[in-house]
Amino acid sequence: MKRSVDRILTTxxxxxxxPPQLLEFVKARxxxxxxxxxxxxxxxxxxxxDVVARQVEAGIDIPNxxxxxxxxxxxxxxLKRLSGFELRExxxxxxxxxxxxxxxxxxxxxxxxxxxxxxxxxxxxxxxAVCVGPITYNGLFELQRDIDNLRAAAxxxxxxxxxxxxAAPSSAIPDRKNEYYKTDEDLVVALAEALRTEYRSIVxxxxxxxxxxxxxxxxxxxxxxxGTDCGRRKNSTGACTHQSCGRSLKxxxxxxxxxxxxxxxxxxx
Length: 269
What we know:
Layout: H1 20-30, H2 37-57, E1 85-89, H3 100-104, H4 106-113, E2 127-131, H5 140-157, E3 163-167, E4 177-178, H6 184-204, E5 208-213, H7 216-219, H8 222-232, E6 239-243, H9 261-265
Parallel strand pairs: 2-4, 3-5, 5-6
Antiparallel strand pairs: 1-2
Helix pairs in contact: 2-5, 6-8
């Protein structure tokens, strides 16, 4: 990990605004439309190269790919990279449609989730992610593409260190439902085992691994174990964490295992 004794090095949390040309492909993929795969791959590569160059121009010391290669949000992208889940239409009202931000930023959420015109960014808030089988990692193609795009962009920009963000096990698919594993704790352990493939690949590629979590204040070390364990294979500082927001114990889902339940079982992953 790069060090500095002269000044504080700069970076950022991860996700950046997608350029319009890339956004059109993302929307089409979300809608299940057939796209020109070669054109999409070329647009993605160019977009990553551009956003890394712009980060460096802005004074960022440790850039990333803007998370451009992820299919949707920072925590739900893993649905495209893991087996064992199926999406089902949410019955009744949208469970995400609550909170003051929904009232203050109604136009944003209308664009995010659609106005019925087929131009929505994501349909994930209208579907439940249900675990119905064993969780395994099957996203190596997308992962390697992200690694290759960032490596090429970093080289072009003259950057010797960059990072790739990933979702922590407890934050991946945070509102998931479990119909396969005996307990929710078993499901989280399975997520950690599967996602460790992604974590290790990033570290082995020479990038910093940023483990993004919403729940560090609740589940403690469970969020960190899978990432920091793979970091030890390269060096003791190959992984870092980013806590995007906390969730109080009062809001912890009643059917989810208590926060402390995850600590011991994932210690040796």
